[in-house]
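Second attempt. The first submission of Restriction endonuclease had a stray character pasted in from the spreadsheet, which I only caught after the job came back as garbage. Lesson logged: always re-copy from the clean sequence file. Corrected sequence (988 aa) follows.
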Amino acid sequence: MNNILSEKEYQHFIMDRLVQDNGYIVRKATNYDRFFAMDRELLFRFLNDTQPNEMDALRKIYKTDLEDTIVGFINAEVTKARGSLLDVLKHGIEISNMKLELMYTKPATTFNRELLAKYEKNIFSVMEEVWASDKERVDLVIFLNGLAIMSFELKCNAAGQSYQDAIYQYRVDRDPKTRLFWFKAGCLVNFAMDLEQVYMTTKLAGNATFFLPFNMGNGEGVNAGAGNPTFKDKYSVSYMWEDILTKDTVLDLISKFIFIETKESKDELTEKTKKSENVIFPRYHQFDVIRKLLGDVRDNGTTQNYLIQHSAGSGKTNSIAWLAHRLTSLHDADNKIIFDNVVIITDRVVVDRQLQKAIMGMEHKAGLIRVMDDKCNSADLAIALNGNTKIIATTIQKFPYIVDSVAGLKNKHFAVIIDEAHSSTAGKDMAAVTKSLGAGEQEGIDVEDMITGEIRRNGKQANVSMFAFTATPKPTTIQLFGRLNTKGQREAFHIYSMKQAIEEGFILDVLQNYTTYDTFYQLNKEIEEDPRCKTADAKRQIARFVELHETNIAQRVEVIIEHFRTTVMPELGGMAKAMVITASRQGAVKYRQAFENYTKKKGYTDIKALVAFSGKVKLPDDETEYSEASMNGFPEDRLTKEFDKDEYQVLLVANKYQTGFDQPKLCAMYVLKKLKGVSAVQTLSRLNRICPPFEKKTFVLDFANTYEDIKAAFSPYYTTTLLSTSVTPTAIYDLEAQIDAYTVLDPDDIEKANELLYKKNISAKDKQKLTFYSKRAKNMIEKYDLIKQHEIVSAMRHFVRFYEFLLQASCFEDTDLHKKYNFITYLLAYINIKHPGGGYNLDGKIKATNFVQKKVEEHTTSNLVAQPVVKLPTAESFGLTEAKEERLSEIIAEINSRTGKAYNNDVAVKAMLQIRDILLKSDKLKTSARNNTVKDFEFSYFDDIDDALIEGLEQNQDFFSLLLSNEEIKRQVLGIFTEEIYKSLREA
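This time the job returned cleanly.
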């Protein structure tokens, strides 16, 4: 590797590489025509060489004016309002009924030798020290057939400069009106590059010029981040001349990737629609994933599925559009088209129009894409799948309805692109996708054969490849779409990590400026009686009672509004907005009411809130029926546009807008509900969008979760997500044995029911028989007590869910088991137990007083550490433990410090957590957990508790002494940790 010490040496080094490795021609800067941003001599060398007949015909018409005429015409085409250099390069020009091509792309097949020959005649050239104007000298300019397509400002780190100096040069010293830099008419892209990093822009706009990184990413797996790798024998940015500037890549970029995006926005004052344009140039990870996917598909056809783990801020819509467009014309080594149709599936109810615009921007061809919007039904989708539309975009909800109606698809090949793949990909909807498009055939009329065929169709289909995009892959998603690495773990085919996106500045780290609050209160019983009730039910009712308590809401609203007005509102030039995550629809209504009461009382006119929840809600002791539309004063479908206006600052939501909502002005989030796993990541990620040109900061005030819990939720998705376990049939057989042990299913009924289910024309009498078999099983279940009934139904539901996943993730076949699955599925629909049963209504029986909102922790840096390994849920974890029952007074004692005394709640909780932490360090308990069931583990657990209490005696003498002296209270209080400690130690 040359030891480059100056910018000039770097310049010459790149030029040498382009000439020696890539066949470029070096041209003198004197050949540059600054008025038209071209090298005229090379332009006409290309035209005369590739299209001699057309040039001869035009020469007869224009004679000695031909060159000036062509140059003037090209210039007029690229500089007019709707014109662009990109359009002229892709589609050529037409003069006097003569078509002239300005570049030739590589043909999709090798059949057309003439086109291949012309493709080889494209001329690539480079100039150094190009005077774009009297005041502007550019380091390097790249030309295609004489037309300037790329500019480079180079900096050498060894000389004390970096890409940032090059960016400054573009912003300050380069005039956007200079012909070379003229938006859409000049260079397609401008690069700022040093020896280590590359940044790019497609639109110069003075100080407002927005540069994007064009780096490979540095490191792999958990170490992946921004920047580029360090190599022993070459520069970190060597991929630029080794790959990006090669002839094939440049032509690929121009013909297949770069496109012009048009955005529309409404001027609130004039009501006129404004249009803005951007030239979209792929970021490195986007270009990389498309090429790698195409290469793998070219080799493997439709045999593989693909998981693409790309963070929020990765430009997923454009990545999907590029992939869909390229897959429509992808040929294999034998020049055969691989896919007949590309189906894009989203779990959003209304398919994103942005996707359609992106695809049409790449190739404006009638009939290329059809979006099945909310006006289309499943019959329309079936027609589209059977037709010639190359790209079909639809919602996953439509697929189950066409399983039996789509015919003749087994001879077609499909690419299915799943937008934001997560839990919906592991259930009946995704099974319906593979079943609809699958090539598996039912070979006979025998019920056994029909069931076997159905099983085969539910798994990976030979004629269907799936491409699943997600930022937060669940274990089930990785199992379905991931592929094995050398360590035996499943992982994504391609990764653009959250860590890299944050470091590159595409998204923000939402775990910075994170503050947690605890709510303290005293809970008392308001009745003489002491009823028995299920702990979980009682706790849920108590939590809901506290959540909706007016004093609690009033205190939290004061914290929220004052924090927003003092800390958040000045952000983004006064345009900052916030979201409040409430725990229920009733909560959303009551918080909105409290919000308005507080702002009215304080006389605040600069803060207004909207509310978002589904359906209609009534509050206790209030006959009014509340809805989102009635409270906001406009229909639901207008909410996003209204919230975008300066008039509104805060959005209070209940299970709405926590995923897929893109509002860059959101700076703060106030969390009032428990968030777990993927849900926590997706909810808090509403804040992570950047909002140029502002330096946006984010704020989170969390009243319901600990900071450690939220970090734990984010850690699997921070870098790469790896699946360490795999699904096995053993687990499903364990579940089957568990269900069989209840003896509620008659094998003969299962057999007869399946014969009816697979009849071609099922009659009313057949349906009566099916109901009879279901009722008989239901009667058997009802012979058990209510708790056991719930246990049986829960086991059956888990069996169905796990079995469906097993079918999709493996080649598993067991006809008898599938019959049982069919029967249980039918039975569950018949039973459909929704009532809680046997619970105890606590309304009016408890009261809460002495509310205090106390700031617990304030975090200004996240220090997030990746925890990439995740595991599949196992059948064992689906089992229910026996429901505990405790007296209501014991439950209140548990909440109010776990004793009958007036211990401070905060102190008591900390005391118990301290015991738990001591127990978690016990080697004796760890050995016991690994070798015993949870019930056997309890013996050693309670033996060790006394040692833990003695160890912690100094810090909490009074409380721990009570527990040591009272065996019953000790078991009641500390028994709540048994299962948690058992699971933690068993997995450690």
